[in-house]
Amino acid sequence: DKVLVSGANGFIGIWVVRRLLEKGYRVRGTVRSTDKGKFLEESFKSYGDKFEVFVVEDIVKAGAFDEAAKGVDAIVHTATPVHTHAISPDGKNNPIKQYLMSKSYTPEMIIPAVNGTIGILKSALKNRNSLKRVVVTSSCGAVLEVGVDKVFSDADWNDQAVREIKEQGENAPASSKYRASKTLAEKAAWEFYEKNKAEIKWDLAVIIPPHVFGPVIHDVTDVDSLNISMRTWYDVVLVDGKSKDFLTTQGSAYIDVRDAAEAHILAMEKEAAGGERIITPAGMFVWQDWLDTARTLVPSPIPSHATLPAGYPGVPSKLTFGYDASKAIRILGLKYRSKEQLTRDTLADFEKLGW
Ligand code: NDP
After folding, report:
1. Using CA atoms, how far apart are residues 265 and 270, in angstroms rounded to an integer?
2. Which ipTM value was assigned to this complex?
3. 339 in ligand 1 pocket by Cβ < 6 Å?
4. Which residue of 176, 197, 293, 332 has the smallest Cβ count within 10 Å?
């Protein structure tokens, strides 16, 4: 079977490609330029013609995915604008602050998210022969409303972020713009699917990852080229100086990137995943947990860092929200890597990269 993966060069996308190839699928991965495809071709050259790169320059253009979607049996759509590079104008690296303060132009986030998603579904509509399932990557950002204390489930939508960008426009925080883009894109996907359900042979499944961390196998040259979730994790675990309030009161749910990739593939394979939104939380964390975990690993997976930041160990912390994790286990049978495993493998990976 052949699977189309959009955003194949991203942090999550490349793991989806790798797991699909390991499981024996043929994969067509889309990237935005020939150049971005080179690293993928090199990474997966041992798979010969089972892997091909397909350039889709602009996912917003009408018919952008028409050719790419021809002849595939399934589609996994991960591509979307995510805040990536995080150097402050003053040259100091503060990705969290930078992320929250940046005035990214709202349409730049929302149009590719929404129109890219509808676009790939429109192209899917034209594939009337082989296609069986489309899996779209959403985000807990499309589910969780900030400041609401409850256990969020697939019945929840983050309409708060959408309201914020409607009310505040360009002045809305970048994080709200990203979350709104994910809410609007996922809603658009379901609307499109419901409208066309009668005439299509494929169905839709949506994977809703929380924070994704783990070993990095995509094309990163240095710490500054990491995607936002991994850059934040790196900064927390290896760079001293985060505030007590941030480390001990902020957090969310996490999933290892390898499990996130597996979740997409299981959502593609399992009949029962059709028509479902599936949240995939491995567990909850406050940021301090990652420092504590990193410091207790013996032997240290990152011996080049003789000491690791301690943060504020022993400060009791408790998040006042959570996620219903039952569906991913019931429908996908998903098994999760622990914080220890994620931390060990990720630090070993950083050690190899010389970071
Ligand atoms: P990356 O930034 O590593 O990957 C994003 C991918 O989308 C890249 O392939 C990127 O291509 C592509 N992309 C970005 N903007 C555009 C655009 N305007 N047009 C076409 N393609 C574009 O991030 P992740 O791997 O983390 O994100 C993958 C998916 O997972 C996204 O849908 C994201 O919302 C979701 N997600 C991620 C979480 C996380 O913690 N990392 C948590 C929850 C959901 P290029 O390299 O050319 O920019």
Report:
1. 9
2. 0.99
3. no
4. 197
Joined together, the tokens standing for residue 35 give 């150049």
Residue 7, ligand 1, Cβ within 6 A: yes
Matching residue, tokens 């593939």: 265
What's the gap in Å between 9 CA and the centre of ligand 1?
Answer: 9
Q: Probe ligand 1: pick from 4, 12, 36, 115, max atoms within 8 Å of CB?
A: 12
- Judge if the beta carbon of residue 53 lies within 6 A of ligand 1: no
Q: In one letter, which amino acid is 192? A: F
In short, whether 82's Cβ falls inside 6 Å of ligand 1 is yes
**Ligand 1 within 6 A of CB of 119:** no
The token duo for 312 is 């504020």
How far apart (Å, rounded) are the C-alpha atoms in residues 309 and 196? 53
Tokens at 152, concatenated: 């969020």
Dihedral sign for Cα atoms in the order 40, 43, 45, 51: negative
pLDDT in tens, 13-64: 999 999 999 999 999 999 999 999 999 999 999 999 999 999 999 999 999 9
Separation CA 260–CA 131 (nearest Å)? 22
Instruction: Give the C-alpha separation, 328 to 284, whole Å.
Output: 15
Rounded to the nearest angstrom, the distance between the alpha carbon of 10 and the centre of ligand 1 is: 6
Domains by residue range for the chain, with CATH: 2-222+254-282+322-336 (3.40.50.720)
